[in-house]
Amino acid sequence: DKKVVLITGCSSGIGLSLAVRLASDPKKTYKVYATMRNLTKKERLLDCIKGLHQDTLDILQMDVTDRTSILNARDKIVEKRVDILVCNAGVGLMGPLEVQSMDVMRQILDVNLLGTIQTIQAFLPDMKAQGEGRILVTGSTGGLHGLPFNEVYCASKFAVEGACESLAVLLKHFNIHVSLIECGPVNTDFLINLQKAELGDTSLQNVDPQTLSLYEKFLQHCGSVFQNAAQDTEDIVKVFLDAIQSPSPAFRYFTSGFVPPLTELKLTHPDGLQYISAMSDHIFSDNEQQRP
Ligand code: NAD
Which residues are named in the active-site annotation (predicted)? Predict the structure, then answer.
């Protein structure tokens, strides 16, 4: 029997690559339900699959912020079960906190946090009844340490960590493994899709000059990090496969292969000040800015 996998956010990026990889598995180990909010964006996925794997891939509409849409997708699963649930859908938000509207902040929390939780909720009773399952969540280093101008995004991803860790403690008793795949920068549409205040936007006109100048430095830093250090989705997919294929998967996987040194500072210096200084130097000091 094939392993039934459901993935959220498959119209681009990590979700798309993972869906393609699993659906093209030479041994046809997986039946993939690739879900996306907007089905008019399915061409990219279909192009990557090239019509070859019709028996291993189905595309379903699912907006993780819409409970009815999640339940409708669940009802369309022919096998009537999901063995591996991948909560991947997510959006970013960048800019000075004082310009973010409540609506935009709610939207980020709706997708990243409540969307993830709501998706898990919908599949949890059946997984518990099956007595086995895997829940994989695309995590972010922004869920492990704070990043300036990313307060709401980081809050959403930190919250996902808390929800998953709490669940993992319980679900151990149901033979359900929860794993977070912690990604640093990845080459995807994430930067295009995220909501970002641009320098010169009218929304920034009342922001103080010091914040704007630090924001400019941050954007430069961010650009160079994505240019020099971003991983490709294939690298991320390998880590997902490790977790999926492991008989006893870890709770956290770091796609870079190690705990980022700045994240480690939080553990070695729990009062938090070392991390704050080091990250501030890393992003804002002119010397550090030259580093890739
Ligand atoms: P991406 O923008 O290409 O993919 C995100 C996908 O989520 C898109 O297909 C988008 O349509 C979908 N999505 C957004 N709102 C949705 C909703 N309401 N319902 C269903 N789908 C929705 O970017 P990506 O990098 O592939 O992002 C995937 C995940 O990886 C996200 O959770 C993101 O936070 C995380 N991540 C990305 C990076 C990075 O640098 N790219 C780093 C760390 C973590």
Answer: 153
119-133 tens-digit pLDDT: 999 999 999 999 999
15 carries a ligand binding annotation:
yes
CA of 109 to the centre of ligand 1 (A): 13
Q: Which two tokens stand for residue 133?
A: 């399952």
Q: Tell me if 65 sits within 8 A of 110, measured CB to CB.
A: yes
Catalytic residues: 153
* pLDDT (tens digit per residue) in 157-204: 999 999 999 999 999 999 999 999 999 999 999 988 888 888 888 889
**143 close to ligand 1 (CB < 6 Angstrom):** no
CATH architecture under which domain 3-197+232-258 falls: 3-Layer(aba) Sandwich (3.40)
Burial of 160 (0-12, 13-18, 19+ CB in 10 A): buried
Residues 184 and 180: their CA atoms lie apart, in Å, by 13
Q: Which amino acid is at 95?
A: G
ipTM rounded to 2 decimals:
0.99
- Every domain of the chain and the residues it spans: 3-197+232-258
**Is the minimum distance from the CB of 115 to ligand 1 under 6 angstroms?**
yes
Mean pLDDT rounded to a whole number for the chain: 94
**Is the shortest distance between the CB of 55 and ligand 1 below 6 Å?**
no
Using the mean position of ligand 1's atoms as its centre, give its distance from the Cα of residue 132 in Å: 27
Structure pTM? 0.96
